[in-house]
Design brief:
This protein is an alpha/beta fold and 224 residues long. It has a single domain, classed as Nucleoside phosphorylase domain (Rossmann fold), CATH 3.40.50.1580. 28% of the residues lie in helices and 32% in strands. The chain has five helices and ten strands, in the order βαβββαββββαβαβα. A hairpin with a 2-residue loop joins β2 and β3. α2 (52-65) runs parallel beside α4 (169-178). The model has no long low-confidence stretch (mean pLDDT 95).
């Protein structure tokens, strides 16, 4: 299978890059891709940079440039207190935007992008048999360090019960949906929203959390 693996930050893909067999680099305009093999799979590995626009742009670039079969988005995220613990490994069940609001038009629910479903369902079939939590994720262009920032938005969502929050997942899922590509979103909890010293804790945990996500994906690809 030809698989695109995308992390928002270089640290989130670094361990996978070390394991790529026959590593080659390819630059297309401003986008740098690392090409190689993991297990039996042909891999296109890249960093999107942070945020919903960067995520959608980079995945679109991959789909337009390579004939991929599957997408894995890998990285870290914030967790909602009481639903997850630090360093939990999560594979996303559904993803949506916590701030999207087109409800001025009655055909749309809160969180829904016009002409798209209310939320995006994600893949986890490759991870079956491994240990992970299967939970919903919401995304937006904020580093959320207080539930007050998004609590009223989350209450308006229908059909989705978020446990984790990040700045890219929904965008990756939206582009995968648009181009009919299955996507698995893997996250390790790097920080718990609202805890004292959250931003400092995130920086201290980032490397360990990134490594855990990478090892999980390596386990998947080396057995398939």
């Amino acid at each position: 299978m030809k698989i695109a693996i995308i992390g928002a930050m270089a640290i989130e893909i670094e361990e996978l890059k070390k394991h790529l067999k026959g590593l080659k680099e390819k630059k297309i305009l401003e986008d740098l891709f690392f090409l190689g093999r993991l297990g039996e799979h042909e891999i296109i590995l890249t960093e999107s940079h942070v945020g919903v626009a960067a995520a959608s742009s980079q995945l679109t670039s991959i789909i337009m440039s390579f004939d991929i079969d599957y997408v894995i988005n890998i990285g870290v995220c914030g967790g909602i207190k009481g639903k997850v613990d630090l360093l939990d490994l999560v594979v996303a069940k559904n993803a949506c935007y916590y701030g999207a609001d087109a409800t001025a038009f009655p055909e749309y629910v809160y969180g829904q992008i016009p002409k798209f479903p209310p939320f995006f369902s994600c893949e986890d079939s490759l991870a079956k048999g491994l240990e992970y939590k299967h939970l919903d994720v919401v995304s937006g262009d904020k580093f959320v360090n207080s539930m007050d920032m998004i609590a009223s938005d989350i209450k308006k969502l229908k059909g989705i019960d978020p446990s984790i929050v990040d700045m890219e997942s929904a965008s990756f899922a939206q582009i995968a949906y648009k181009y009919h590509k299955p996507i698995m979103i893997v996250r390790t909890i790097s920080d718990i929203i609202g805890e004292e010293g959250q931003a400092k804790g995130y920086r201290n945990t980032l490397e360990e959390a990134s490594l855990k996500s990478c090892k999980f994906v390596l386990d998947i690809l080396n057995r398939k």
